[in-house]
Amino acid sequence: MQGTKGTKGKKGKKGTRTRRRTTLVVALALIAGLGATAPVHADDPAYPFRDPALTVDARVADLLSRLTLDEKISLLHQYEPAIPRLGIQSFRTGTEALHGVAWLGRATVFPQAIGLASTWDPALMERVGSAVGDEARGFQQQRPAGWGLNLWAPVVNLLRDPRWGRNEEGYSEDPYLTGSISTAYGTGLTGGDPDHLKTAPTLKHFLANNNEYQRDTTSSELRPRVLKEYDEQAFKPAIAADAATGVMSSYNLVNGRPNTASPLLDDTVRTWTSRDLLNVTDAFAPGNLTGSQQYFATQAEADAAALTAGIDSFTDNDTDSAPTTNAIKSALSTGLLKESDVDAAAGHILDIRVRLGEFDPGGGRYGAIDASVIDSPAHRELAREAAAESAVLLKNDGTLPLRKSASAAVVGPLADTVYTDWYSGTPPYTVTPKQGIAAKLGTPVASSEGVDRIALKDTATGKYVTAGTDETGAPLKETADSGTSAQFDVFDWGSGVVTLRSAANGKYVGYNWSNFVNDQAQPNGWFVQQQFKLERQDDGTYLLRYAGYETGESWWSNPVYLGPTDAAGTLGLVTKDAAARYTKDVVRSGIDDAVAAVRGKDTAVVVVGSMPAINGREAHDRTDLGLAPAQEALVKAVRAANPRTVVVVENSYPTTLGALQQQVPALLWTSHAGQETGNALADLLYGDANPAGRLTQTWYESAADLPSILDYDIIKSGRTYQYFKGRALYPFGYGLSYTTFRYGALKQVPGGYELNVTNTGSRTGAEVVQLYVHQRTSRDTQPLKQLKSFDRVTLRPGETRTVRLKLRASDLAHWDVTRSRWVVETGTYDVLAGSSSTDIRARAAWQVKGETIPPRNLSTPTRAENFDDYSDHSTISLVDESKASGTAVSATADGAWLKFADTQLGSGVSRFTARLAGSPGTAEIRLGSPTGRLIGTADFSGTSSPYDYTTVSAALAGAAKGRTDVYLVLSQGVRVSTFSLR
């Protein structure tokens, strides 16, 4: 019997439902006693929380009433213990499921998230999500430690900056596309019925988490428009659609306040849905509040602040819950928390567990799903389909598709490998590009990785660096052996970083905290200890530098170079001065080998790209956007040897391809696309699938087009396709096909716009019809274009279909900082339909009757953060007004200014009043410009704490009247929260 719907109704604070449940406890006691001779006892198998006929709220209220305070507190840690007296099993938050179930064993591996989003296909995303949800259920049947149905996916952080190390985990630089894709994936994960959850997905990472550099101490500064129009809009759709059951707070700070204690978790996120959410912290983030962030003095204070802000589950101290539970108990005993706060968080957790069917007979609707679904034939086929749909054709002069009757060679460092990433599952099998093409042609193909094989000889001893010859390898030594054991294949990943693969056993060399051993199948691990740099010296010799990720940590220090350190000649770490000097003997030229493989073939396919563990990943941003120099040189050499060269770029982010994209006849991009990579590429290259992927972020021509990665103001800095005024290498939404499409006229219809799209080519293909809007005039700076709708439509040759794209007047709203609310302005809006953000094929003008934003009224207290413009990111900072809530503005240099445009001063103003904190200084009020007429100066003597605000005032010149722009000009160190002019 299916349970009835849970109680609805918006709730801005998490205590609301707890109060409702308190009344339900009394009602349930009465219900339980009807027709019975005695009340239901805790050990009775029929107690109400196990009754699926009751509402979710009623069941949670019953269970909550049966728990002791200690038991409720025990639920607040990631590892929730069993409660045997109630027959309740243990529960764990946090199974990784970004593009397949990860870290639990062999499971279907789909393309990376950036690749999945490049399909622009919500229907496919929902199917992928459903498959991942099924496999999570399959693992859960066996319930070993560490498995659970609360999934930490998807990642919806906007791909604002392509240098972000975790670019592979996100979907798009655009919030609408991100919301559409995440909602579809989440719907698949949940099963589509919020009362009966297949799994409970958690959106990562709230909020504005888009740099890995000092990610736990840097502050992402979000002015209200960027917060409301951009960053929040990536998270809201899936929550509002009940396609996600909570958010994970991110490590970073926003406007000076750690997200682990952000009031937005309650005050904003919980208003997006009428259902309970389970909000979790990122791993070890609670400890950062007293550690690296130094935000609170004690863990009790820190955990209490996080709990009252909206966190329900603490991910801290790994499996040891004692520090968390002790901190919560201490906070209760000192009055920092009330038991009702614990009840609220525990209630949110139990709500999700009830909806997952944990307390239903047989585990509920999805309880029968078993391990047979993992790596099923259907999921293998879906992985291949997703990999083919996700690829983006960047260039094609007619070379593609290839003829199956023609000969081919497949070369490049990624030609015969499939890499996994940090959040990837363990694939049950992999198909490399070489294998996929060979299978497609039904014959072996010539191949070469195109990397140099070298030997390193110590100039002082004449001995060679040698590795172990068996499967497990051995510590590197210097010996007289100059054979295979002394040879290494050198893979260039850019920025001077290379990996060394032993020719003796095909394993990569890595550091194991004591020795360098050739024992790894691919670079891996949190620190990625398989990285080296060959540093050329003036005399032509080389130093071998160890460049593992841990060498960049604060606790690591020299030495980082290799050299003999003992009598046996075993290589260890030494200082640069003591490092061995090596000659680099090229045993086999990678370029020569690749050229030999492609010469005389009808087609050369070159597969280049990144290594996911090296080229940017969690905790490590990218330092450049370019292709590795050796890979670029390989492409040029192959192109010179074989004019019919097709380049496949397999990586996780936009790449500045430079002249390369002009030199080769065909260019195809794919993410690291999972176990079916090779088959999908073969399907695309040989025309059994027609490329239809579209880029989900701007590909810039140069890193010089980007401001600091720490500048989050996309409006002022001109980021993303919405505000970028430069020329992109490839624009947002771009992608080619083997066929062509014609667009008809754009017509307004109820609920949106429609147009006819015709396949004018000779092949069946899919077109992604994209609808953008531009507001011609506005009080505020508006995006150049903004995606509002899209549809991926498949058409046969000659077929025409009417494509309807949803668009309502309310979709045109932007955040009005003068009144802190959404507004649709009266005016003309350009409605643009196209194949990318720059390839507009049809347009219409829409006259919208909305409202006119009135002039500012500064006579009432105005929050300083609601400015219209400011001096720049280096002189103005958004900071925490208090540790609990609020945003203030701080000047980081003298002369920093805030603009409040179009202010109505009326017949005149005579007094400036402001709430200030921080260093002694002044606040000037000027009209027209930052150096315009000075009408008043407030002197401020400073406060002992940046959170201790005091009221200052100053007389204003009587001539200040009329309608004008008002500027506040601040001296360094002054913080302002609110001000008024009267």
Verbal overview:
The chain has 982 residues and is of the alpha+beta class. It has 5 domains: 15-84 and 91-363, Glycoside hydrolase, family 3, N-terminal domain (TIM Barrel, Alpha-Beta Barrel), CATH 3.20.20; 391-449 and 589-705, Rossmann fold (3-Layer(aba) Sandwich), CATH 3.40.50.1700; 460-580, Trefoil (Acidic Fibroblast Growth Factor, subunit A) (Trefoil), CATH 2.80.10.50; 739-848, Sandwich (Immunoglobulin-like); 862-981, Jelly Rolls (Sandwich). 21% of the residues lie in helices and 26% in strands. The chain is built from 20 helices and 51 strands. A hairpin with a 5-residue loop joins strand 39 and strand 40. The longest helix has 19 residues, at 15-33. The protein is globular, with a radius of gyration of 30 Å. Mean pLDDT is 95; it is low at 1-16 and 25-40. Belongs to the glycosyl hydrolase 3 family. InterPro entries: Actin-crosslinking (IPR008999), BXL (IPR044993), CBM6 (IPR005084), Cellulose-bd_IV (IPR006584), Fn3-like (IPR026891), Galactose-bd-like_sf (IPR008979), GH (IPR017853), Glyco_hydro_3_C (IPR002772). Residues 1-42 form the signal peptide.
